Amino acid sequence: MAAFSQKCIVVPLDTDMALTAAEIGLRHKLAMADAIVYATAQLLEADLLTCDAHFKDLDGVRYVPKTAAAAKTDEARS
């Protein structure tokens, strides 16, 4: 985990990022938090690696479906 956190960066949510996220959210019908995540990846020209199906058809997304066991664990937490 320490090696992973050393490669992470914190990106400020400034006005430009917020406006871009709002536009993306409207265009792709994403919740605001998801739109911020996607907008951040787009603006940084980074791939977005996710197991959230609502991202799977978007450009620049690497979608990895959840396994049945992982999906059951997520349901149990809700």
Low-confidence runs of at least 5 consecutive residues: none
Largest sheet strand order: 1-2
The helix fraction, in percent, is 40-55%
Structural class: mainly alpha
Cα-based radius of gyration, to the nearest Å: 14 Å
How does the overall form come out from the CA principal axes? globular
Span from first to last CA? 25 Å
Can you summarize the main beta sheet?
2 strands, parallel
Record the SSE blueprint.
Elements: H1 2-6, H2 15-28, H3 32-43, E1 48-50, E2 61-63, H4 68-77
Structure overview:
With 78 residues, the chain is mostly helical. It has four helices and two strands, in the order H-H-H-E-E-H. Strands 1-2 form a two-stranded parallel sheet. Helix 2 crosses helix 3 (32-43). The longest helix is centred in the N-terminal third of the chain and has 14 residues, at 15-28.
Quick summary of this structure?
This protein has 78 residues and is mainly alpha-helical. The chain is built from four helices and two strands, in the order αααββα. It has one domain (14-77).
